[in-house]
Amino acid sequence: MSLTIDAVVLGVPNTQTAYDFYTSAFRIDEDKTVFGRSVELHGAGHLVFDAFDHLADSVGVPAQSSGFRGFVLSIIVQHPYEVLELLESAVEHGATVISEPKKRFFWRICDCFSRS
Where along the chain do its domains lie? Predict the structure, then answer.
């Protein structure tokens, strides 16, 4: 059996704001194949944006929570400079750097940012 992830659904306070950030920061075109506001991740699946209230209602849980609402997406690129370009673009479009880029084991370059 082979498994692939077709879509990751993010519960967000404002779907338009999330859509604008991801399409601008990561140079992604609008996806016409998935219902709702979503983007196609260069052949790696879809990132779908749904309002917190609607998403919570659809799975039968309360929308209001004091719990953790963060998530991690790993983006793999061919060259270290591409990591820096993506981070720079994310910051240009409103992200906050949490961890500065640095070389890791086997020449990987990692960084961390947040978009509230």
Answer: 1-69, 74-116
User: Backbone phi, then psi, for 80, in 5-degree steps?
Assistant: -55, -35
Its pTM stands at: 0.71
- How large is the average pLDDT for residues 96-113? 68
CA angle, residues 112, 91, 35, in degrees to nearest 5: 85
Collect all residues with Cβ–Cβ distance below 8 Å to 10 and sequence separation of at least 6: 18, 47, 48, 49, 50, 71
Amino acid at 61: V
Report the pLDDT value the prediction gives residue 32, as an integer from 0 to 100: 53
pLDDT digits (tens, 9 = 90+) for 65-81: 777 666 777 777 788 78
Distance CA 62, CA 85 (A): 38
Per CATH, the number for 1-69 is 3.10.180.10
